[in-house]
């Protein structure tokens, strides 16, 4: 779905594509929040709702729990997932079509990979934003990828 | 006998109202549902005064009027379900069971990608499921 949006519709306007994918994710997250909060008692505060997202919601949608949760107690939460299953199988394309000699080829490949990854990340961000806003918490969600190809 | 069921959205906008008795005035039932919203708000905002159970989705008997009993149920997404019944003796377990099935039907109706959240529920499947649940409620409490 993401690649059809990136390559066919609005190929020249990546910001618009990103926002559309995020909007689709928002609708999905909205409905998933209804479904997964069915039998549960209410959340007493924001932290409870975020913990619900980290444990139950994350394991239903992404099949595992969050590895790390940090907060600054002033409304910002950082959720860290060390092995995000939706991106784990993505290949990194090392063939470059238009070689730009002024730029380092390995950096170019990494840029393309990062761009592709960030497009794919709009959808989960939208899902989380939709779920939280249905629970009554208006928010903004952003994703950050670090250590893309690190291995031990 | 269930007189009417209603689904109210989180901004107190009605999403679905269905009455099941032909004799009674629909306006009166709407009025009862509307008044019960105040009771729901009060229960939600003062959890300590109204009883020991906080954080439960099922709110229980909201208030009895001269002919009816009104039960309430609040979901995590602040959507309220109201049940108006004319039965004199209704078991708590029956009402809880009713609301659980009603919630399942509601979640399925909302999962429809063509449904706009915040607008009225127009799905015929939902209406059918609700009338089935209402019919089986009448049978189980009579037996």
TrEMBL record, chain A:
GO terms for biological process: endoplasmic reticulum to Golgi vesicle-mediated transport. It holds the Pfam family TRAPP. One of its GO terms (cellular component) is cis-Golgi network. InterPro entries: NO_sig/Golgi_transp_ligand-bd, TRAPP_component, TRAPPC6/Trs33. Belongs to the TRAPP small subunits family. BET3 subfamily. PANTHER family: GEO08327P1, TRAFFICKING PROTEIN PARTICLE COMPLEX SUBUNIT 6B. This is Trafficking protein particle complex subunit 6B. It comes from Hevea brasiliensis.
From TrEMBL, chain B:
Transmembrane segments: none annotated. InterPro entries: Longin-like_dom_sf (IPR011012), Sedlin (IPR006722), TRAPPC (IPR007233), TRAPPC2L (IPR044760). It is found in: Endoplasmic reticulum; Golgi apparatus, cis-Golgi network; Golgi apparatus. The keyword Cell cycle does not apply. CDD domains: TRAPPC2L (cd14854). Keywords: Endoplasmic reticulum, ER-Golgi transport, Golgi apparatus, Transport. It holds the Pfam family Sedlin_N. Gene3D superfamilies: 3.30.450.70. Part of the multisubunit transport protein particle (TRAPP) complex. Belongs to the TRAPP small subunits family. Sedlin subfamily. This is Trafficking protein particle complex subunit.
